[in-house]
Fold this sequence. Notes:
4-stranded antiparallel β-sheet
Amino acid sequence: QVMFVESGGGLVQPGGSLRLSCAASGFTFNTDSMNWVRQAPGKGLEWVSQIFDDGTTYYANSVKGRFTISRDNAKNMLYLQLNSLKPEDTAVYYCAKDPMGLSRGQGTQVTVSS
């Protein structure tokens, strides 16, 4: 079945960086677009970024210029580089097949706080 295992979250100070990873399995990874979505405390899921199989990328305005999505099709891995982190980036981050996050993993917690 489709599975995602996210890792790389943690506690970081404002302005800091993290790199999130997602190991995907159970489907043909290299032909599907992939997404990162997040859920802040007390809020709904928010789409963050998308990458297509040809490498084309899209970002939410709130993270554009600070986050970078990438993929390694040979390893079935999805990544999200988070730079210049802000307290409002605090959330559980999920990798997902769809932008709505209906098919997603268990997530990894990112907390931005001084």
